[in-house]
Inverse folding.
């Protein structure tokens, strides 16, 4: 005689003689986080060296709760381009009590001067670059246009530096 068993989801079976051992082996998933910076390529130099996001989970439509011990820090070394950082939470369980887990994220401390928004697995930090108001006066040193050479308008160009 031999013993067989139909496969059981998320279990690995070992058969020795007439003993069947089922070991729970849940499927693990990765959850990729993308950080997008909308700050004119860090024009004002306010972008921090790192940001941290907290992982949340929801099962069967429940209110999302923080997953203990699951924070992810992203830095410039995680960049895929000048304004995008990418990292992943790894080996996360896909199911809890037989129901699929829905994961979400939230930035822990939004950097000063930025507004954060989350869409799916993308956290976008937006910073509107600082602006300044410039004013000036054009002075003509031509004896009140005695020779009639003064132009009707003047074009002024502002240069950085």
């Amino acid at each position: 005689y031999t013993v067989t068993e139909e496969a059981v989801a998320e279990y690995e079976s070992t058969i020795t003689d007439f003993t069947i051992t089922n070991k729970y082996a849940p499927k693990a998933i990765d959850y990729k986080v993308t950080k997008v910076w909308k700050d004119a390529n860090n024009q004002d130099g306010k972008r921090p060296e790192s940001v941290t996001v907290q992982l949340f989970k929801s099962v069967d439509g429940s209110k999302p709760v923080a997953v203990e011990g699951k924070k992810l820090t992203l830095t410039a070394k995680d960049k895929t381009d000048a304004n995008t950082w990418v990292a992943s939470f790894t080996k996360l369980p896909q199911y809890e009590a037989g129901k699929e887990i829905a994961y979400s994220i939230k930035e822990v401390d939004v950097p000063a001067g930025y507004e954060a928004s989350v869409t799916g697995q993308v956290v976008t930090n937006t910073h509107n670059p600082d602006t300044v108001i410039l004013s000036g006066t054009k002075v003509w040193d031509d004896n009140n246009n005695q020779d009639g050479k003064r132009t009707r308008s003047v074009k002024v160009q502002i240069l950085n530096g």
Observations:
- The domain at 27-126 is CATH 2.60.40.1140 (Immunoglobulin-like).
- The mean pLDDT is 92.
